Amino acid sequence: MAAPLSELIRSRRLWPLTLAQSCGALNDNLVKNAMIVLAIFRLGVGGAGLSALAGALFIAPYILLSATAGKLADRLSKPRLVVFYKALEVALMTAAAAALLFASVTALLAVLVGLGVQAALFGPVKYGVLPEYLADDELLAGNGVIEATTFVSIVCGSVAGGGLILLDSGSAVVGATGIVLALVGLFGALRMPTLPPADPGLNLGWNIAAETWRVVAAARRVRPIWLSVLGLSWFWVMGATLMTEFPVVVRDTMQAGGSVLTLILAVFAVGVGIGSMGCARLLHGQVSPRFTPIAAVGISLFCWDFAAAATGAHGLVSARAVLGAPAGWRMLLDLTLLAVCGGVFSVPLYAIIQETAAPAQRSRMIAANNIMNALFMVAGSGAAAGLAGIGLDAPGVLRVAAGANLAAAGLIFAAFREAPVGSHREAVAPEAE
């Protein structure tokens, strides 16, 4: 029987991993945003091109290294790997602190590549270890906690990085904050209960392209896993599009300042947290995609209305003004409900992958998901840039995304009707190895 959520969160089966993951997500976004703001506002270099380069350097390791990371996670003890990866993060944040003090954008870009590598290696471990710690009827709750804290950490890291670096001693403050967070994450990793390797006899292949192809091909052979991977990849396209368009909506559509962007990001993160953590209660712990199509429709409806509401909120230039106007509340309500639907959409799909995959190959299935997520996000960013390039404003891009979401989600979940999801675990073909 599943433990109550509050008890599960306090358990060593979940809180150390959650702490390690949250500190990592905070640091990734802290350094990336601090570097961009430092370069643009203090050093007078870069701009949109630097922001795009930073994003590309961070996401490239997910495409290149996820397959190898999945194999490592299946062959070795996952808690020990987490300790190693968090120790690597301490070293990287020490290097980031030095690069910030010397105001070296080149060095910061190199650190960002290192953080991307560390995050890509960590990804298959954090989702692969959850089913080893949690019972089947706790998977939704565990994934919900990880999803919620990840989004909150992304937002907090982004806001803190951009804000702290502009202080008089901003470089020192950001550097010290990053090191402290890395040490706290390492503490969490050291508190994770020990586990044996899932497949200690697994042969590691070092041909990156071949390993990537094998892992993705193995995931494709198991229909519930593959459909979940496609659904999650599309979810991250929508998430990346929203995060990209929010600053443009605030600056160009609303003619507002930074306080409004912070408010929007905070509301979005809280909404995802509510949806993610409420999903287990909604489904009563049963791993099932039955509410995911409804959530997909909600994402499209509220994304569309958010675009209209933001246009109507033109002239609300501060967070206080947004909170004091009906148009502002409409916009925030749309955003909250959109984010709640996002949490309900994504959490069951992670759990389906974890429950369906054979235990000895679970991390490789998570790796396949990470590879496809990254590829979809790159394609989605290119599409959004193309729409902006032909003159479509931010609300227009969001309307296109809302329409595309209905079509994509409809195709994926029509296919789910032919791919029953049960409580059994389905072995992956031997070629996965």
Please give a structural write-up.
The protein is mainly alpha-helical. The chain folds into two domains: 1-206, Up-down Bundle (Growth Hormone, Chain: A); 212-423, Growth Hormone, Chain: A, CATH 1.20.1250. 79% of the residues lie in helices and 0% in strands. The protein has helices at residues 5-10, 15-42, 48-75, 78-101, 105-133, 139-164, 170-190, 208-220, 223-253, 258-283, 292-312, 319-323, 326-356, 362-389, 394-416. α4 runs antiparallel to α7, α8 (208-220) packs across α14 and α9 (223-253) runs parallel beside α14 (362-389). It is globular.
Features:
single chain; 433 residues; mainly alpha; Growth Hormone, Chain: A; 2 domains; 15 helices
Percent helix among the residues?
Answer: over 70%
Instruction: Give me the secondary-structure category.
Output: mainly alpha
CATH homologous superfamily annotation of the largest domain: MFS general substrate transporter like domains
The proportion of residues in beta strands is under 5%
CATH fold name of the largest domain: Growth Hormone, Chain: A
What is the topological layout?
Blueprint: H1 5-10, H2 15-42, H3 48-75, H4 78-101, H5 105-133, H6 139-164, H7 170-190, H8 208-220, H9 223-253, H10 258-283, H11 292-312, H12 319-323, H13 326-356, H14 362-389, H15 394-416
Helix pairs in contact: 2-4, 2-5, 2-6, 2-7, 3-5, 3-8, 3-14, 4-5, 4-7, 5-14, 6-7, 6-10, 6-13, 8-14, 9-10, 9-13, 9-14, 9-15, 10-13, 11-13, 11-15, 13-14
